[in-house]
Design goal:
By secondary structure, the chain is α/β, with parallel strands linked by helices. The protein contains 14 helices and 7 strands. A hairpin with a 5-residue loop joins strand 2 and strand 3 (54-56).
């Protein structure tokens, strides 16, 4: 995994939506319902061992349970290659994290250590072969010694395999796996458009930025040409614009009022305001189909630029996949 690509995974999985979907879809819906994801908080990833050796985790955060003082620690490590001693490494990070809590006096008298969810996110092409339980790393022995050997398991998210198992899934983690499995510009753009449709609203602005960074990191890691990268990077703005238009259209149908593009095209709008909205129609058409198609559409609308007609054209721009399909629908 290229360094930039590695860092963008940290950006994505530091977002509430990514953490919530990871737990809900890959650990358990019941656990997700018990957690208050509004309390998600990143923690410093650096730890100092007893030998004064600095160890750094990829990502550490905590989220509180809805009832009581208890919180869940979530430790994520991102891998592009098999690490045969991954289980031991994550166990070490876990012990250092617990020691830090004790050293800082963050546990109240009588309270137990908080639970910790250890996760390894792997995006390499070869299947993950490393042990997922530290017990597998220790030589087999017979009783009574066996009962004293440590056991510690982590959750493995092998993105390549996840993408293979459910290639049409829309959840965030699986979508990343689908893109890792087929890193073509067309597939990246298709899956990213689906993610942007799912995560709409100002509360997902940081997630959108993280996804943008992921695309840039992926393009660098996979040596995707700059022209294809520029085309992929336009997905966020385009999708947000068309989603706003769809919301306006849905509002029109719910209220039974033709509201147009922005504030609406009410019946009886003066001709000047209709011309203003017609310019917005042209802008939408330009963004989706190009300047030549928008120019043709403008000429078609010159004689019939009333409120109802503009509303129909907005629907057509949103629904159609090509200029030819748009003109066939507009002329019908």
């Amino acid at each position: 995994m290229a360094r930039k690509h590695d860092e963008t995974y940290k950006l994505i999985f530091s977002q509430r939506a990514a953490v919530e979907e990871l737990i809900r879809d890959f650990v358990g819906k019941g656990l997700a319902d018990e957690l208050d994801f509004d309390t998600l908080e990143p923690l410093p990833p650096n730890r100092i061992s007893a030998g004064l050796i600095q160890r750094q985790m990829d990502l550490l955060c905590k989220v509180r349970f809805r009832d009581g003082w208890l919180y869940l620690l979530i430790l994520l490590e991102f891998q592009s290659e098999n690490d045969p001693f991954m289980a031991l490494r994550i166990l070490t990070y876990t012990c250092l994290t617990y020691e830090e809590l004790i050293r800082r006096g963050e546990l109240k008298p009588g309270n137990k250590l908080p639970p910790l969810l250890p996760v390894a996110v792997y995006n390499g092409r070869p299947r993950w072969r490393a042990a997922t339980d530290v017990a597998e790393l220790i030589a087999s022995v017979t009783e009574p010694l066996a009962q004293y050997l440590p056991s510690f398991r982590y959750l493995l998210l092998d993105l390549q395999r996840i993408g293979e198992q459910d290639p049409k899934s829309g959840d965030l983690v699986t979508s990343l796996g689908i893109m890792e499995r087929e890193p073509t510009p067309e597939n990246l753009r298709r899956v990213m458009r689906g993610l942007i449709r799912r995560f709409q609203g100002p509360e997902f602005a940081e997630l959108h930025q993280a996804l943008h960074s992921w695309v840039a990191g992926a393009a660098e890691a996979w040596q995707i040409p700059e022209a294809d990268l520029a085309r992929m990077m336009s997905f966020t703005e385009d999708e947000e614009m068309y989603e706003r238009a769809k919301e306006l259209r849905d509002q029109v149908h719910r209220d039974g009022v033709r509201q147009g593009l922005e504030q609406g095209l009410e019946q009886g709008l003066e001709q000047g305001r209709i011309r203003e909205r017609a310019l917005l129609v042209r802008r939408f058409a330009t963004r989706k189909f190009g300047a030549e198609t928008a120019e043709r559409l403008t000429r078609i609308l010159e004689d019939r630029a009333d409120a109802d007609r503009l509303d129909e054209v907005v629907d057509a721009i949103i629904d159609c996949d090509s200029g030819a399909e748009l003109f066939a629908r507009v002329r019908a």
